[in-house]
Specification:
about 700 residues
Length: about 700
């Protein structure tokens, strides 16, 4: 009976374990599915914002801020898509190092085969993934936007070489242009800004962010994909490093100022946002530390280097293990006691950051593996590291993956929100600057218009005084003049039509020229560009404009046809009215009858009447001429304002976004910022067990009710 009870108990226990494992598996799978859907949905939403910032077919100019932001968002979408794809792939184990700390050597030891290049600085513009899931001759190349291309290994190697060649050629172009343009600059700080601008325009940045290489299914490669990441801290060659220090020191000592626009990328071409994107993809991280720094009593140097590295990638994730490398050098100099002291110091300094800190000699591990020496391999610390990796990352793989990938999805969302918030602020400032520039341009042109109007009014007053004198002198002569000569006499001798015509034309030409000159001076200040020294021509903006947009903005020939029409129109009205008064019905009927009798009285009446009429007409004509002149100048100013608006808004659109899409872009950025509050709720036991059961029972009950009703 006891045996039967014991057997029953064991059977129940086994069933309980089976149920637990089943539920645990279901929970893990549901979590992964939920995370997959969230990552893809988030990627799609961010991609839509990037598309609004850079619609298909949009011309991309060097220094385009919207293009840079769109690129950064596309890198996030590519990372999210890759993260979703990685959920169905082997566990992704990253090896992170700060410089030549034996990272490639450790990768080769972990994989049990030589796959990572040793004794050379890693290519810092991409990551290398070693995976056993690819055919032996195939490689996959991924770009920042998530595009994947499958090549042969030889083709991938050649592609990487070509990318390096393009980079080197672009660096030579930058150097050449810098030598040509820097001679005109006085300070080192100015030359640094010039160098940054030339790099922004001419430096080639490879779109490749990752290459997957095939490896044999040995060592960790049976379970993990191992990633060789860009070095977080690379030393320049001495000459370049010293030159950089001299430039910075000279800039600070020369005028006390440095440019407020630091380079967006390191000397090697990797931007901080790219590095963050790399490390957000990791399921587990082996973070290498240099044991010799601690052994030499330089903990502060190691801490500073660590802080700089963490700042560049946004911190160390919770799924990280510290690898204290070069422990063999510590052992050679101080024995096991020195090793114990260094390990204890590392745990004191970094114990709150890493789950485990394992002392290792990557070089000894690789040599022991090649020699088949188990004792040497044990002394290298590799077996202990493998045990930690197995325990933390393989056995708890599903939980670790959910935690790390969830953290990565939230980090991607936070990063996208941060990018959106920063660009929203930048865009708002740019729009405010756009409006300020418009107001400044209007003030300048209004000043030109006021001065032109004042000068014309003064000249017109002089003309009126002169004509009034001639009215009194010449009005009497009209009485004895044949009728057919009077109109011409009024136009030429009294009102001096040609003088007024020339007066208006001359002042209109002067005003037009002044408006054009001021407009030309204002064009540069209206141009939006991120550069200080490598300034594009305004004609570059013209190239992107339609002729209909410019219209007849400013005519270079100074045509005065408009001015002549103004004078002709006014004089035609004035002289026609006077001619009608002099030869109209009143003059025709009573002139011949009464003039001989009352000649002196008639002459006086006529003279006074004609003088009054001419004076009135002169005033009306002057007022009309001034109104029409002002209207013509206003039109000229409006055309100049339109031209400056086109320069301003077109360059703004090429640096940021077109004005007609500004509001939709603001809305998209606002939606992007909301991702900062993204919450990921993992499905629990109730979601996986009770909920489906209840749904099944409810649906079954409904079906039964429907059958009974039928």
């Amino acid at each position: 009976m006891a045996d039967q009870n014991r057997a029953t108990g064991e059977r129940v226990a086994r069933q309980a374990v089976t149920v637990f494992r089943h539920v645990h598996y279901r929970i893990a799978q549901e979590r992964i599915k939920t995370l997959d859907r969230t990552a893809r949905s988030l990627s799609h939403a961010i991609e839509q914002t990037a598309a609004k910032l850079l619609p298909p077919g949009t011309q991309v100019d060097p220094g385009s801020r919207s293009h840079r932001v769109a690129e950064e968002l596309l890198a996030v979408t590519g990372g999210l898509q890759q993260l979703a794809e990685e959920l169905g792939r082997p566990f992704l184990l990253f090896v992170v190092g700060m410089g030549k700390f034996g990272k490639s050597t450790l990768i080769n030891a972990l994989l049990g085969q030589k796959v990572a290049a040793m004794d050379a600085l890693p290519k810092t513009w991409k990551i290398d993934v070693f995976t056993s899931t690819l055919p032996p001759t195939a490689a996959e190349v991924r770009t920042y936007d998530g595009t994947v291309q499958t090549l042969t290994v030889d083709e991938a190697v050649q592609l990487i070489a070509d990318e390096e060649t393009r980079r080197a050629e672009s660096e030579r172009t930058v150097q050449k242009r810098f030598r040509e343009m820097s001679a005109s600059l006085a300070t080192v700080a100015e030359k640094e800004v010039l160098r940054q601008e030339l790099e922004e325009i001419h430096l080639y940045r490879s779109p490749i962010v990752e290459v997957r290489w095939p490896v044999a299914a040995e060592g960790l490669a049976r379970v993990f994909d191992v990633v060789d990441t860009p070095g977080l801290w690379q030393e320049r060659n001495r000459r370049a490093h010293a030159a950089q220090k001299d430039r910075i020191a000279s800039a600070q000592a020369g005028n006390g100022t440095t440019t407020n626009q630091p380079p967006r990328e390191t000397w090697s071409g990797v931007r901080s946002e790219d590095l963050r994107s790399y490390y957000l993809q990791a399921d587990g991280v082996l973070w290498m530390l240099d044991a010799t720094k601690l052994a030499a009593g330089k903990p502060h140097e190691l801490i500073r280097t660590m802080d700089e590295a963490m700042e560049r990638i946004g911190g160390v994730s919770a799924n990280s293990v510290g690898v204290l490398n070069r422990i063999d050098l510590v052992r050679q100099n101080g024995g096991e006691a020195a090793v114990a002291r260094v390990v204890e110091e590392a745990r004191r300094l970094f114990g709150s950051i890493f789950q485990h800190i394992v002392p290792v000699s990557a070089r000894e591990a690789l040599l022991a593996h090649e020699a088949g020496d188990p004792r040497r391999l044990q002394a290298s610390g590799l077996p202990e590291l493998l045990a930690v990796i197995d325990r933390e990352f393989r056995l708890n793989g599903a939980t670790v993956r959910w935690r790390s990938k969830s953290e990565s999805v939230r980090a991607y969302a936070a990063h996208a929100a941060s990018v959106g918030r920063a660009y929203e602020t930048e865009l708002s400032s740019a729009v405010a600057e756009l409006n300020q520039r418009a107001m400044r341009a209007k003030r300048h042109l209004d000043t030109v218009k006021r001065r032109a109007t004042k000068a014309f009014r003064s000249a017109l007053e002089e003309y009126m005084i002169h004509v009034q004198e001639r009215v009194h002198e010449k009005a009497r002569a009209l009485l004895d003049m044949p009728e057919e000569q009077r109109k011409a006499f009024i136009e030429q001798e009294i009102l001096e039509r040609d003088r007024l015509r020339n007066l208006v034309a001359e002042h209109f030409r002067k005003a037009s020229k002044q408006v054009e000159q001021r407009m030309k001076k204002l064009e540069r200040s209206q141009l939006f560009t991120p550069f200080r020294y490598v300034m594009p021509d305004v004609t570059d903006v013209d190239a992107g404009l339609a002729t209909d947009d410019i219209g007849t903005a400013v005519r270079e020939d100074g045509d005065d046809g408009g001015a002549a029409f103004v004078v002709d129109s006014v004089l035609t009205v004035a002289t026609s009215a006077l001619f009608y008064f002099l030869v109209g019905p009143w003059g025709i009927l009573i002139g011949p009858l009464v003039r001989p009798v009352f000649k002196w009285m008639i002459d006086w009446i006529w003279t006074e009447s004609v003088t009054s009429k001419l004076t009135n007409r002169l005033n009306v004509m002057a007022k009309q001429a001034e109104e029409l002149f002002n209207r013509a100048v206003d039109n000229k100013v409006h055309q100049a304002e339109d031209r400056l608006r086109i320069v301003r808004e077109t360059s703004f659109g090429r640096m940021h976004v077109p004005m007609d899409t500004l509001e939709s872009v603001k809305d998209a950025l606002a939606s992007l910022i909301e991702l900062d509050s993204l919450e990921l709720r993992p499905p629990g036991v109730r979601d996986i067990t009770l909920t489906p059961l209840l749904l099944a029972r409810v649906s079954g009950g409904r079906a039964a009710t429907e059958r009974r009703s039928a």
